[in-house]
# Entry
Amino acid sequence: LVFDENDVPSIGFSGLEGWGDGGGSRWRARIVHAASSDLSQWSEPKTFADAISPNQEAAASASGVFVGGDLALVYEVRDHLFVRTGTYTEGLALTDVFTGTHDYVLASDGEQLHLVYHSVASEPNNSSRMVYRGWTRQAGWSDRVDLGATTAHHTALAIDHAGNVWVFYGTSTSIRVRILKPGSSVFEAERCIISVSGDDRASHGWLS
# Structure
């Protein structure tokens, strides 16, 4: 559920169905918006993603946020992260290798989109990485910023009232944070904010 600059709500939703005889699936994501002020009427659903896999789950997880008047929609298809920006009728703006069904967060400060996600490592024996990218209509996508080592379900993002972007991530032994100050293109150095005791390391370190 997201609201545009005129407080009109839009709802994104997705569904998975069986496909073929080999354990495949088809996944589709759609969006609707309110067509009346009392919410009694809604637009026809618009499909913004449609994926088929012959032998596995085709895709999962879709969400969105408004950046001014621009709608950004993000979803995962077969280990790749996709983001549409502008409107859902435009072409794909970003595709990147991705790890984790829901391991991404996007937020807007009103002028810029901030996206963090769990990406596979560039080398086979290295750990997975927390990655940041920003987007504006004027400049498009920023370069990929590698923030640090991470593991599954360790992904959180927040923007405070001063405009600082806080990115939280970590491993089974620690939770870490890096901060992007307003007007800066470089994150501050990584800081460890929580060391996880041995007794707690059997559980997932879910962040939100």
Summary: The mean pLDDT is 86. Residues 160 and 166 are 8 Å apart (CA to CA).
